[in-house]
Design a protein that fits this description.
It is built from 8 helices and 3 strands, in the order ααααββααβαα. The chain is α+β, with helices and mostly antiparallel strands.
Length: about 180
C-alpha cells in the first residue's frame, strides 16, 4: 500500500527567516543577539534613538588562566551619535547603560563609546493622536471616581478617553471593510 505523500508547505513567516539571515552579520559586530539593535527605540526612548544607533558590541579579551566559571567581563557598546547630540548622550551614559542592561537581563554593557557621525534614519510613521470628544471624557470619568489625587484622576480620565477613542476608531474601520 502506498503512503500518501506529505507536501511540505514552503511558506514561512518572514520573522523566522530574518533572524537566521542577520545573525552572522550581527555576530561579526559582537552582538550575540539582535535585541539591542531591534529594540533600540524601546531601550533608550524615541528621542535618543532618533539621534543615535548602536554600531558594535566590543568584548574585552579573555585573560589567560581565567577560571571557566568566572563571570564574563562587561563589554563596550559603540554608539554612532549625531555631532550636536554627543555631549548630551555622554552625560546620560550611566542611565543608558542601566537601561540596556535591564533590557538584556544581565550586566552585559559596562561602558559606552561614542562615534560621531550621521545616523541612518528610518522613515518613522507616527500615528496621529485621535481627538477626544466630550462624550468619551464623560464615559471615562466614572471609571476614576475612586482616585483621591485630583491630578492623577484627571490624567487617568484623559487616558481612558483616548483608549475609548481608539476602540471606537478600530470598530469603525472594521465595519468599513467589505
Amino acid at each position: 500500500m502506498k503512503r500518501p505523500s506529505r507536501k511540505r508547505s514552503w511558506s514561512q513567516p518572514l520573522a523566522d527567516l530574518v533572524g537566521a539571515a542577520i545573525h552572522p552579520v550581527l555576530a561579526r559586530q559582537g552582538f550575540g543577539q539582535s535585541d539591542v539593535i531591534l529594540n533600540w527605540d524601546d531601550i533608550v526612548g524615541e528621542r535618543l534613538a532618533a539621534n543615535s544607533q548602536p554600531i558594535k558590541l566590543q568584548w574585552p579579551p579573555r585573560p589567560p588562566g581565567r577560571h571557566p566559571d568566572a563571570p564574563p567581563q562587561s563589554a563596550t557598546l559603540q554608539i554612532r551619535v549625531e555631532s550636536g547630540f554627543a555631549l548630551e548622550l555622554q552625560h546620560m551614559a550611566d542611565v543608558l547603560i542601566d537601561r540596556i542592561n535591564a533590557h538584556l537581563g544581565w550586566r552585559c554593557v559596562g561602558r559606552l563609546a561614542f562615534k560621531q557621525g550621521p545616523i541612518d534614519r528610518l522613515a518613522r510613521i507616527k500615528s496621529p493622536r485621535g481627538t477626544v470628544t466630550e462624550a468619551q471624557m464623560a464615559a471615562a470619568a466614572p471609571l476614576t471616581v475612586g482616585v483621591a489625587d485630583d491630578a492623577l484622576r484627571a490624567a487617568l480620565t484623559r487616558l481612558g478617553a483616548h483608549v475609548l477613542s481608539r476602540d471606537v476608531a478600530s470598530r469603525e474601520s472594521a465595519t468599513d471593510q467589505p
